[in-house]
């Protein structure tokens, strides 16, 4: 269950919540060395710009006040001076160098992703994030992280929200990324469909996730706490609804988390040879559907005209089950819709079997083959 | 028509030798009614067409912006589905950039360049009209794409692949619309360059030319250099969408980020295309109302050229978060920051022009001074964005949105307003109402800042752009922004009804030279400027 | 009847003309048609072709007017200068258009491809090896063979270089007032262009049938066909321009002093030539 409020040393040390504060005027308080360097750079830029601004416009407004016709000022006739031109070319040039030089060190630092303690792959998908712990303690953990704010808090055009908005409205997820404090975490980003961007402001991290390519970024949080960010690259309709949440914990807590997560995964990866009853599959499938499919195909299975195929009444859902398994494992792009059906390989065999069974027994669908067992998915994956 | 044309010519050449007088076919032809506008070859008429077109686009793009602001007034989804919201954002950007700002400057170029250099018309009068008549079709395609299955393109005005390959037919309509707008820009630019290079009145050397012409000469060069590159980028998008190429698809060995490189090779110069003519307008107005010649004319020319040249080597500052090698990040950071130097030279020269002048503050001057003041804020935030680590922090947040509205609205748009007030007497023969102009200026300046200043805070705190809904912590500033936006919109409706229309319909008759300190050939012809001017080129000392 | 250019107006400005607006409408029709066509709509193709035909008709009328004015002696030296400048800048814009595609080839080959195969990308594409001309890392592209410089591209290079020479001979002829010599060498130039295009078509057929090299053959096929395709399109345009010029040469439109239409088309032809040399090296050799 998502932690409702940020706990940890970050809040006590900085007063930040790990996300934005109401009506905040400046950058979010830094939780990493890089983020505080960014703060310093930003403050330095602000000071220099303000000084120049005041100087330049001080002169201008002085002139506006004194050199106006209404106070009887007569126009001078001078109109050039090479010395002055050189001066106001060279001085700004030097100032600009003074701005860029201190930034150089930070640029190099941000790029240095070597010697990470833990490497996590973050995969952007329309519209959720998938995480795989690739290296370090926790290796092998993998899960999908979905927005957990209920739609009832968001509302829809013409349908006001029915639920009170929570404190972490649009910045909460079902599965948080958990990492240990004071460890160098390397985030490897990629995507399956379009470009997304993985961003946590308090860490000073923002890295595009590009389909077919990997990029990386790193952070080393100096505080425990829960940190929140959003997908920062336009990725289609639910772009505003795929947040990122990282919980930074102590080493001991991390080890404990890894153990429970592994146990959970083992439990989840139920024996693929187990035979399920149709009702078990339907109940499980409904959850999988709500978490993964409803954004596009909608809860009522009707899809969105000209955008997402309806599943209610679909020939594939009502036809042989082999076709539907194929669609789920490999995706589908017929060209009839602008978007494509992503592949769902990363779901567990049981989840895929469950969601297929669910779609086949819901709405008006009544196919002959109405149940799919996990073993069939295992077979189809080969 | 064509035979009439020829007849005139033959009549003229066969009949008698006029020498260099009356050497204009159209001298005999003052078309009226629909024919005057549809078949126009007169640079003033075409300029007027451009100006009206761009103003209509400004209002349309503005209405789209107001829809965005209505949705963002509160968190939650109030009025629009997110997919439609994305269409609004995208079309707002496209309409404003390609429909409002760029054509408005071309309108100014059409009206003023021949008048300022003492030419009888643009070099290619028919092609000039073609450049214009490509725009309404493009606008129709864009507007029509809302009705296409799946709606208009919703990939952002930058049309990043591969999101752009997911869109429906609306995307293709946008691609084709941009193709023809690009063709229009290229032809318009060729026309402008040729006019300036080839048709200046005897004695007007390049270094005597009014600043506005200089900035447009350089802008036109930029346009010819980068519009074809945009055409290339969107052509590749089109073939990726429909013909199975893999330019932006990693599975086939392409690269989505390549789209961004090609796009921004166009896109960054594009933003200077939208500001250099604004610099030109301001450089005409400041001396006129300071009653003192432009300070540092030559260095202004060099600064403009430097900005243009530098603009080709900074494009990747829009892509710091795509993950480039560290050397590229550093290169693009340094190169970008360098642009502050020539831009600073411009600002300093304007202020030196004002220094010890004898200033008055009619509306053109107010907008020009407002421009310098507010544009510089936008320039500074640009500089802050150029610092790679800071950009990585605020990229794709409202900080960027604040930056570019400061330079585009308070920059380009305010300069356009300044230019309108400055030259409207020449165009219409009437003085606008100074009181109304001042209301427009102060109203716009104040509501502009209410709208766009809080966006800096939103961006710093981390609110991403292109968001149909946002975390509740951002609520108050968004509400202020939305209120400001409606106020700003209201001021522009005010401009239409209380400034533009009354000035066209009547008002105090304008003398040939309504501004005491104004200089230039355009003020030597009567107001309104007669249909034909400088048929015999004037001689410039 | 030729007019003495001294009598021409200082700067001829044409009167109102319906062509630009009609051209705008034709473009609208073309683009609406094209948008529908690429989306497989039934009427798209027809509408698009109607638009293109209308555009050609408009251009015919428009250029007809311009030629009449020119022949009517309305074009002073100054107008001639304008045309020169405009052609030069137009060609510059074309250079930039090709630049985008050359840039794409460079980027895909020198930057993206090694990236896709580097250590980090093993996570996604464990067995991708970066040889140019590969079928992409995902195995979604059918294998194909790449196109080498022999024999067709080399023959084509020779053809185009030769066409540059024949065109220059033709130009010297017109400057010397030798109209029929000019026409013959101009015709030879067009012929060389046509043969070039013939070989190009043959090469494409060879690519599709024997090499399995298609537009859909990953980034290699994309850049190969888009670059050579746009070049071929420009050769065709250039050849059409030269044909119009030839027609006008035969009609006696040009004088030794006054033949800018000829020169403009020739510049264009040389530009297309130079692009080919770039292609020959970058696409076929490297
Ligand atoms: C008119 C348009 C215009 C203009 C003029 C500019 C001007 C500048 N812009 Fe801006 N920019 C845009 C339009 C414009 N921009 C747009 C539309 C986008 C977003 C596109 C999108 O993503 O949709 C953008 C985005 C953008 C980014 C990317 C942000 C991001 O997406 O993360 C960056 C980063 O470097 C940047 C930098 C700059 C800089 C350094 C300047 C400089 O030219 C500014 C120079 C001016 C000054 C500095 C002020 C005056 C100078 C002085 C008074 C001298 C003294 C000063 C010093 C010595 C410091 N701009
Ligand atoms: C080029 C110039 C330009 C101009 C002038 C404007 C003007 C405005 N823009 Fe914007 N804007 C862009 C260029 C411009 N913009 C670009 C390039 C983007 C990026 C798009 C993208 O992300 O892809 C953008 C994005 C953008 C966003 C971010 C959207 C998002 O990220 O989701 C917002 C949000 O507030 C916004 C707001 C506004 C507002 C309130 C105005 C106001 O100034 C508008 C003022 C309103 C009017 C001028 C309307 C007046 C009309 C009436 C009141 C009706 C009267 C009608 C009749 C009389 C018929 N713009
Ligand atoms: Cu994912 Cu935006
Ligand atoms: Cu830029």
UniProtKB/TrEMBL annotation, chain B:
Pathway assigned in UniProt: Energy metabolism; oxidative phosphorylation
GO cellular component: plasma membrane; respiratory chain complex IV
Top EC class of this enzyme: translocase
Gene Ontology biological process terms from the UniProt entry: electron transport coupled proton transport; oxidative phosphorylation; respiratory electron transport chain
Keywords: Cell membrane, Copper, Electron transport, Heme, Iron, Membrane, Metal-binding, Oxidoreductase, Respiratory chain, Translocase, Transmembrane, Transmembrane helix, Transport
Composition skew (Basic and acidic residues), residue ranges: 8-27
Catalytic reaction equation(s): 4 Fe(II)-[cytochrome c] + O2 + 8 H(+)(in) = 4 Fe(III)-[cytochrome c] + 2 H2O + 4 H(+)(out)
EC number: 7.1.1.9
Keyword hit for Electron transport: yes
Domain Cytochrome oxidase subunit I profile: residue ranges: 37-541
Membrane topology summary: Multi-pass membrane protein
Stretches the record annotates as Disordered: 1-27
Membrane spanning residue stretches: 49-70, 90-111, 132-155, 175-199, 211-238, 258-282, 294-318, 330-352, 364-386, 398-423, 439-459, 479-501
Gene Ontology molecular function: cytochrome-c oxidase activity; heme binding; metal ion binding; oxidoreductase activity
Subcellular location: Cell membrane; Membrane
Lineage: superkingdom: Bacteria
PANTHER family with a match to the protein in the record: CYTOCHROME C OXIDASE SUBUNIT 1 (PTHR10422:SF18)
Similarity annotation: Belongs to the heme-copper respiratory oxidase family.
Known role: Cytochrome c oxidase is the component of the respiratory chain that catalyzes the reduction of oxygen to water. Subunits 1-3 form the functional core of the enzyme complex. CO I is the catalytic subunit of the enzyme. Electrons originating in cytochrome c are transferred via the copper A center of subunit 2 and heme A of subunit 1 to the bimetallic center formed by heme A3 and copper B.
Protein's recorded name: Cytochrome c oxidase subunit 1
From TrEMBL, chain C:
EC number annotated for this UniProt entry: 7.1.1.9
Location within or outside the cell: Cell membrane; Membrane
Class in the EC hierarchy, top level: translocase
Annotated keywords: Membrane, Translocase, Transmembrane, Transmembrane helix
CDD domains, alphabetized: Cyt_c_Oxidase_III
Residue intervals passing through the bilayer: 21-38, 44-64, 85-108, 150-170, 182-202, 222-247, 267-285
Membrane topology note: Multi-pass membrane protein
Transmembrane keyword on record: yes
Domain Heme-copper oxidase subunit III family profile, first and last residues per copy: 7-286
Pfam families recorded: COX3 (PF00510)
Xref: InterPro entries: Cyt_c/ubiquinol_Oxase_su3 (IPR024791), Cyt_c_oxase_su3_dom (IPR033945), Cyt_c_oxidase-like_su3 (IPR000298), Cyt_c_oxidase_su3-like_sf (IPR035973), Cyt_c_oxidase_su3_a-hlx (IPR013833)
Principal localisation: membrane
Keyword Membrane tagged: yes
UniProt family annotation: Belongs to the cytochrome c oxidase subunit 3 family.
Protein name: cytochrome-c oxidase
Gene source species: Pseudoduganella albidiflava
């Amino acid at each position: 269950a998502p932690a409702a409020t940020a706990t940890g040393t970050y809040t006590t040390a900085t007063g930040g919540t790990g996300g934005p504060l109401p009506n905040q005027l400046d950058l979010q308080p830094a939780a990493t060395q890089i983020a505080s360097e960014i703060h310093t750079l930003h403050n330095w830029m602000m000071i220099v710009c303000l000084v120049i601004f005041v100087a330049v416009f001080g002169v201008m407004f002085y002139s506006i006040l004194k050199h106006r016709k209404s106070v009887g000022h007569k126009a001078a006739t001078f109109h050039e001076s090479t010395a002055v031109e050189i001066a106001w070319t060279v001085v700004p040039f030097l100032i600009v160098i003074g701005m860029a030089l201190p930034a150089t060190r930070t640029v190099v630092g941000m790029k240095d992703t070597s010697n990470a303690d833990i490497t996590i792959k973050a995969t952007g998908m329309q519209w959720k994030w998938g995480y795989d712990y690739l290296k370090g303690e926790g290796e092998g953990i993998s899960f999908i992280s979905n927005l957990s704010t209920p739609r009832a808090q968001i509302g829809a055009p013409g349908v006001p929200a029915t639920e009170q908005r929570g404190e972490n409205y649009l910045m909460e997820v079902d599965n948080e990324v958990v990492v240990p404090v004071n460890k160098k975490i390397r985030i490897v980003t990629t995507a399956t469909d379009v470009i997304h961007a993985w961003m946590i402001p308090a860490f000073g991290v923002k890295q595009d996730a590009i389909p077919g390519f990997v990029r990386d970024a790193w952070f080393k949080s100096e505080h425990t706490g829960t940190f929140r960010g959003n997908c920062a690259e336009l990725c289609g309709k639910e772009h505003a609804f795929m947040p990122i949440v990282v919980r930074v914990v102590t080493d001991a807590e991390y080890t404990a988390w890894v153990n429970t997560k592994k146990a959970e995964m083992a439990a989840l990866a139920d024996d693929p040879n187990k035979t399920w009853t149709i009702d078990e599959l339907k109940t499980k499938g409904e959850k999988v559907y709500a978490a993964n499919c409803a954004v596009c195909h909608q809860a009522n299975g009707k899809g969105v005209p000209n955008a997402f195929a309806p599943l209610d009444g679909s020939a594939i859902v009502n036809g042989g089950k082999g076709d539907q398994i194929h669609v789920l494992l490999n995706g589908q792009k017929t060209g009839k819709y602008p978007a494509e059906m992503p592949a769902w390989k990363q779901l567990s065999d049981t989840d895929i079997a469950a969601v297929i069974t669910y779609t086949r027994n819901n709405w008006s669908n009544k196919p002959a083959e109405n149940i799919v067992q996990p073993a069939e998915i295992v077979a189809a994956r080969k | 028509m064509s035979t009439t044309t020829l007849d005139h010519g033959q009549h003229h050449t066969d009949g008698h030798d006029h020498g260099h007088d009356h050497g204009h076919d159209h001298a005999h032809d003052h078309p009226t009614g629909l024919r005057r506008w549809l078949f126009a070859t007169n640079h003033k008429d075409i300029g007027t067409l451009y100006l009206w077109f761009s103003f209509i686009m400004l209002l349309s793009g503005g209405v789209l912006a107001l829809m965005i602001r209505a949705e963002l007034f509160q968190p939650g989804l109030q009025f629009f589905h997110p997919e439609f919201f994305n269409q609004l954002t995208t079309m707002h950007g496209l309409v404003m950039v390609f429909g409002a700002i760029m054509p408005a400057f071309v309108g100014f170029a059409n009206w003023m360049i021949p008048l300022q250099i003492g030419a009888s018309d643009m070099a290619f009068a028919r092609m000039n009209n073609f450049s214009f008549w490509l725009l309404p079709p493009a606008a129709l395609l864009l507007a029509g794409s809302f009705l296409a299955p799946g709606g208009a393109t919703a990939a952002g005005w930058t049309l990043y692949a591969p999101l752009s390959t997911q869109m429906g037919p609306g995307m293709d309509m946008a691609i084709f619309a941009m193709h023809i707008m690009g063709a229009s820009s290229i032809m318009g630019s060729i026309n402008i360059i040729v006019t300036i290079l080839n048709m200046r009145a005897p004695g007007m050397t390049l270094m005597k030319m009014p600043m506005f012409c200089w900035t447009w000469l350089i802008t036109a060069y930029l346009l010819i250099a980068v519009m074809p590159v945009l055409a290339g980028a969107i052509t590749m998008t089109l073939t990726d969408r429909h013909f199975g190429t893999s330019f932006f698809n990693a599975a086939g060995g392409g690269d989505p980020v390549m789209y961004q490189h090609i796009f921004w090779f166009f896109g960054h110069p594009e933003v200077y295309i939208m500001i250099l003519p604004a610099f030109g307008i301001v450089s005409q107005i400041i001396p006129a109302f300071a009653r003192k010649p432009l300070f540092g004319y030559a260095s202004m020319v060099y600064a403009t050229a430097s900005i243009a040249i530098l603009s080709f080597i900074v494009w990747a500052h829009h892509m710091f978060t795509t993950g480039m090698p560290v050397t590229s990040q550093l290169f693009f950071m340094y190169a970008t920051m360098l642009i502050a130097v020539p831009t600073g030279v411009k600002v300093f020269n304007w202020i030196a022009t004002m220094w010890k002048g004898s200033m008055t503050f009619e509306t053109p001057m107010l907008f020009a001074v407002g421009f310098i003041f507010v544009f510089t804020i936008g320039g500074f935030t640009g500089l802050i964005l150029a610092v790679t680590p800071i950009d990585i922090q605020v990229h794709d947040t409202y900080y960027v949105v604040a930056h570019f509205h400061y330079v585009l609205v308070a920059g380009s748009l305010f300069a356009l307003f300044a230019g309108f007030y400055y030259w409207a007497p020449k165009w219409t023969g009437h003085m606008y109402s100074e009181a109304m102009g001042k209301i427009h200026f102060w109203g716009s300046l104040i509501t502009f800042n209410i709208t766009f200043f809080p966006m800096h805070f939103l961006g710093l705190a981390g609110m991403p752009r292109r968001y149909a809904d946002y975390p509740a912590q951002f609520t108050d500033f968004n509400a202020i922004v939305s209120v400001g936006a409606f106020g700003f919109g209201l001021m522009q409706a005010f401009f239409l009804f209380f400034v533009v229309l009354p000035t066209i319909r009547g008002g105090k008759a304008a003398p040939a030279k309504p501004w005491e300190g104004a200089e230039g050939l355009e003020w030597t012809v009567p107001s309104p400027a007669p249909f034909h001017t400088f048929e015999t080129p004037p001689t410039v000392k | 009847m030729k007019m003495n250019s001294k009598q021409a107006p200082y700067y001829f400005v044409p009167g109102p003309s319906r062509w630009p607006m009609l051209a705008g409408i034709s473009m609208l029709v073309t683009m609406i048609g094209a948008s529908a066509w690429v989306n497989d709509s039934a009427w798209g193709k027809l509408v698009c072709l109607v638009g293109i035909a209308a555009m050609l008709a408009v251009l015919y009328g428009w250029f007809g007017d311009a030629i009449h004015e020119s022949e009517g002696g309305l074009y002073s030296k100054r107008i001639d200068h304008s045309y020169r400048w405009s052609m030069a800048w137009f060609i510059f814009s074309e250079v930039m258009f090709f630049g985008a595609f050359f840039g794409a080839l460079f980027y895909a080959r020198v930057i993206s491809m090694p990236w896709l195969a580097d250590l980090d990308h093993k996570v996604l594409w464990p067995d991708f090896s970066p040889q140019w001309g590969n079928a992409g890392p995902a195995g979604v592209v059918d294998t194909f063979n790449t196109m080498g410089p022999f024999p067709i591209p080399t023959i084509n290079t020779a053809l185009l270089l030769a066409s540059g020479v024949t065109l220059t001979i033709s130009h010297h002829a017109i400057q010397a007032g030798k109209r029929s010599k000019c026409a013959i060498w101009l015709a030879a130039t067009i012929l060389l262009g046509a043969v070039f295009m013939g070989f190009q078509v043959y090469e494409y057929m060879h690519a599709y049938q024997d090499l399995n090299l298609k537009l859909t053959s990953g980034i290699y096929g994309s850049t190969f066909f888009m670059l050579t395709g746009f070049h071929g399109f420009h050769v065709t345009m250039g050849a059409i321009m030269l044909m119009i010029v030839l027609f006008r040469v035969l009609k006696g439109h040009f004088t030794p002093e006054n033949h800018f239409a000829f020169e403009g088309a020739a510049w264009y032809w040389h530009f297309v030539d130079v692009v080919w040399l770039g292609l020959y090296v970058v696409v076929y050799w490297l």
